[in-house]
Amino acid sequence: MTTLPTRPAAFWRDTHPSAVLAGLVTVVIGWAGPNVLIYAVAQAAGLSDGVAMSWLWAHAIFTGLTGIVLSLRTRMPILTTWSTPGIAFLVTALPGIPFAEAVGAFLLSGALVLLLGTFAPLTRALQAIPAPLAAALNAAILLPFGFRALQAFGDTPALVGAMIAAYFVLRQLAPRWAVAGVLLTGVLASAALGLWHPSPVPLALTRPEFVWPQFSLHATLNLALPLTLLAFTGQFVPGFGVLKANGYEPAPGPVLRACGVASIGAALFGCHNLTLGALLANIVSGPEAHPDAGKRYTAAVWAGALNILVGLFAGTFLHLMGILPPQALAALAGLALLAAMGSSLQGAFQGARAGSLAAPVILVVTLSGIAPLGIGAAFWAILAGLAVNWIETRGHLGLSGSPAQVQERPSP
Q1: Which positions are tagged coiled coil (predicted)?
Q2: Does residue 303 belong to any structural domain of this protein?
Q3: Rounded distance, CA 139 to CA 345, Å?
Q4: Which of 62, 92, 156, 378 has the fewest Cβ atoms nearer than 10 Å?
C-alpha cells in the first residue's frame, strides 16, 4: 500500500492527546524493559559504561528517525526498535570477540537486511501470512504481558489492584485516558505505599562514541549471520503480523531497506540490528492510540520523537525508571496492551474457518517458548500455523469437492 508523504500541517491536524500518550507509554515501557538488557551484555563482554550509553543513544536516535519517516510516508503506525532476540543472543555470543569486530558484524548484518529488502520472494512471503494467523501470533506475543501483570498483583496486591481498578473505572468514564490514569495511579500508589525509590537524578546529555569497524570471518559467522536470522524470525515476521492484525499492511521492501540503512548508521556507534517493532507496536497501532485508525500513525511519530529525546538523555531517563517499582511497570504494560490482546484473540478466531486449529497451534507454540536451532518460538509458531492451515485448506477443498462429484454420477 503506497501513500503520499504527510505534510507537517496534516500531522498536527491528525494528532490527538491519546496519540501523544500512546507514544509516551511505548517509550516508558520500552526503556523500562528490553532496553536495560544492554547492561547484561556490557557486563558479560566487559564493555565500558560509555560504550553501553552510546549503544542506547544510537538505538534511540536511529529508530526514532526511522519510525518517524516510515510512519509519515505510509500514514501507518510503524514503530522501529532494536532486535530484542539479538540483544539476548549477544549476552552469550559477544564475550571473547573484540568490540570493533562486533561492530563490523553489526554493519554487515545491517547490509544483509538492506539487500534482503530488495528480494521480492521474501517480501511477498511476509505479505502472504493470513490475517487470522497474524492475529493469533500477535495475541500469543501479548499474553505474557497480561500474565506478568497478574504476577505483579500477587507480589504487591495493593499497588497493582489500585492500578487495575483505575483502568476499568476509566474505561467506562473516559476510555481515552484509561492508560494515563493507570500511570498516574501507579506513581501515586507507589509513593503512598512507600514502594518507590526516589534519588537524585542527574541531567546530562549522552555522548555517542564512534567505533571504527573491523571485519573478521569469525565475527561474521558467529555474530552477523545469526543476528540477521534473529532479526527476521524474532522481529520482522511478528512485527508485520502485529501490523496486519491491527489492519495495516505496509509494503515490506521499503521497511526492510529503511531498517537496513538505519542499522548501518547505528552500527558505527556500537548498536546491533534495528528492526520493525513487534511487542510494543500494539500500543501505537491499537484502538487506544487514536479514535481514528487512519490517524494512528501520529502515535508512532510521537513515539519516535520521544524516543529521540530520551536517547539524548539516556542515563537520566534510566535513573527515572529506577524510581518506580518493577511491579508498577509490569502492570502498566499489561493494562496498556489489554485491549490489543482482546482484539487479536477476536481476530484470530472470528476470522478463521470453523473448527480450524491453525490459530490454537500458533498460540501454543509461541507460548511454549521453544527455540530449536536457537530460533525463537514466534518463527516456529507461524511456520506450524501455516502448515496446519495448508493441510486444513487442502482437506477442506477435497471434502467439499467430493459430494459434488458424487452427485454428478448417475444413479445405478
Answers
A1: none
A2: yes
A3: 6
A4: 92
Residue 246 lies in a domain: yes
Mean pLDDT of 347-366: 84
Element (H, E) at 213: none
218 assigned to some structural domain: yes
Q: How far is CA 11 from CA 17, 60, 177, 309, in A?
A: 13, 22, 21, 19
Look at phi and psi of residue 247 and say left if phi exceeds 0, alpha if psi is from -120 to 50, else beta: left
pLDDT band at 231 (very low <50, low <70, confident <90, very high): confident
The string of DSSP codes covering 219-273 is HIIIIIHHHHHHHIIIIIHHHHHHHHHTT----HHHHHHHHHHHHHHHHTTT---
User: In sequence order, which residues have a C-beta less than 8 Å from that of residue 207 and are 6 or more positions away?
Assistant: 50, 53, 54, 57
Instruction: Retrieve residue 260's grid coordinates.
Output: 537496513
The 10 Å Cβ neighbour count of residue 16 is 18
- Please say whether the beta carbons of 304 and 67 come within 8 A: yes
Contact 94/102 with Cβ under 8 angstroms? yes
Share of the chain above pLDDT 70, in %: 88
Q: What one-letter code names the amino acid at 70? A: L
The pair phi, psi for residue 279, each rounded to 5°, is -60, -50
In a domain, 198, yes or no: yes
Q: Which three cell numbers stand for residue 180?
A: 494515563
Q: What is the average per-residue pLDDT within 349-369?
A: 84
Question: Domain total for the chain?
Answer: 1
CB 282 within 8 A of CB 246: yes
Place of cell 484470530: 348
Residues 6 or more apart whose CB falls under 8 angstroms from that of 155 comprise 327
pLDDT in tens, 158-187: 999 999 999 999 888 877 677 778 888 988
